Amino acid sequence: xxxxxxxGTRAPNGASSIYLGADGVWHGRVTVGVRDNGKPDRRHVRAxxxxxxxxxxxxxxxxxxxGTVRKPGRPxxxxxxxxxxxxxxxxxxxxxxxxxxxxxxxxxxxVPGLGAHRLERLEPEHIESLMRRMQASGSAPATAHQALxxxxxxxxxxxxxxxxGRNAAALAKPxxxxxxxxxxxxxxxxxxxLTEAAKRRNSARWxxxxxxxxxxxxxxxLRWADVDLDAGVIRVRxxxxxxxxxxxxxxxxxxxPGFCPNKVQIRPDTKETxxxxxxxxxxxxxxxxxILRRHKERQDKERAxxxxxxxDGGWLFATETGRPLNPGTDYHAWKxxxxxxxxxxxxxxxxxxxxxxxxxxxxxxxxTVMGIMGWSTDQxxxxxxxxxxxxxxxxxxxxxxxxxxxxxxxxxx
Length: 413
Hints:
The chain is mostly helical. The protein is 48% helix and 10% strand. It has a three-stranded antiparallel beta sheet with strand order 1-2-3, with helices on one face. It has a three-stranded antiparallel beta sheet with strand order 4-5-10, with no helix packed on it. It has a two-stranded antiparallel ribbon with strand order 6-9. The termini are far apart. Residues 1-10 and 384-391 have low confidence and may be disordered.
C-alpha cells in the first residue's frame, strides 16, 4: 500500500493505494481479483480521514485474502436477494411444501422486517431484533425459528456465490423453542374415537391413523395398488400435497384462485416420500384387513352410484366422485370426529403420537416401531419420557404379583 511514490518509480501491479484527492477526500483502491471480462477487479473506497480510508482498505485486503469479497455489480438488498433466491434458486431444487414454507417466511416475516438492509451490511443483531419483534407481535417461537432457518439457508447460498463474505443468520442466536409435549390419547379414548369413526364415511382413514400412525399425507396419498389385503401389507410410497390452483377464467372472477369456477390445478396430487425411512411396508392386523375389505365394498358401491361422475384415480380414500381427499377437508373431519367422540381437542398429528406410544408400550422392538412409523433415531427419543414411567409401573405391578404376593409369604415360613 502506498500514498506517495518516488519520482521514476512505479507501484507493483495490483498494489493497493491510498491518496488525498483534489476533492479533499481520501481515496483507496484495492485490486481484489479479476472480473468476468478478464480485467482487474479494482475496488474503490473513500473517507474523510486517512485513518478511516486506511481501515477500509485493510478490510478489503483481508476479505480478498480470505476469498470473501462481494462480487462486483449492483449491491444486493436483503429483499432483492431473498426474492431472487426463493423463486429462482431454491424453488427448482426443493419440494413444493418446502418451497411454500420458504415463500411464507420471506413474504410475511423476512422482507418486511429486514428487506431494506444491504445484504453485505446485515448484522446478526438486526436478525435477533426481528426475532424478538416477531414474538412480541404474537408469533410463536417456532415460527421465528423457521424464519431464521429460511434466512440462514438463503444467506448460505449468497456466501457460496460470493455475494457476501459471511452468513449473518448463522451467527444470530436462535429463539428458544420449547418442544411441544406429546399427549397421546389413552386406549379407552382411542376406542371412543374408533366407535365414532365407524359411523362415518371413510372410517378406515382414522383406523390407519390411530392403529398404524400414518401421517396425514401418507394416508391420503395411498392408492389401492399400495394395498395387498391377501398378504396383509400396505406400502407407503408417496404423500398427498395440498392443492394449488391458478385462475382459469377469461374475465376476472374476483375470487381467489382456489374458488375460481374455472380454476386450473398447478400442483401434482402427490409427491414421493422424501426419505428411505418414509418409504416402507407395514404389516396389517387381521381386524384392519377386514375393515379395509368392507371399506372397498362401500367404495365400489359409491362408484356405481356416481356413474359417469366418478373419476377413477385408484385412491384408497376418495371423495364421493373418486377424487383424492383435500388435506384441509380431512383436517376439519378430524376435528369434528374428536368433538363427536366427546374427547379433548387434539392435533391431527396426535393420532400418530398415540399409535407410536401404544406400539412402544406393547413392547414392540424399537427398530420395528421406527420402521412402522418411518422415524429417524432422534424421533424415537421424543416418546422416551412417556413410555419409560409406564413401563416401570408395569414392572412394579409384576414384581408385586410374582414376589410380594401370598406365595412369597408361604416361602418365608
